[in-house]
Amino acid sequence: MTSRSTLWRQLWFQVLVATIAGVALGHWAPNFGASLKPLGDGFIALIRMMIAPVIFCTVVHGIASASDMKAVGRLAIRSLIYFEVITIL
User: Fold this and answer.
1) What average pLDDT does the chain have?
2) Quick one: angle between helices 69-88 and 37-65, nearest 10?
């Protein structure tokens, strides 16, 4: 494979191209861009829906792979304190 064909497969490049396309669409066709708002809202809703399961699975995997339960307890206390501080802020 050439470097050109692998560039299109890179996620960072695809995000960059989509961002540039979105900016161009908003600049030259703002009415059409506004009509695509439900697609953007749906995408954001899907991302929000995926956050909780990913975090839950990550925490469960981390606890399951820990061998020292004292360390798991300290991590749990730190996590709760961090959660409370961030929630208050």
Assistant:
1) 88
2) 150
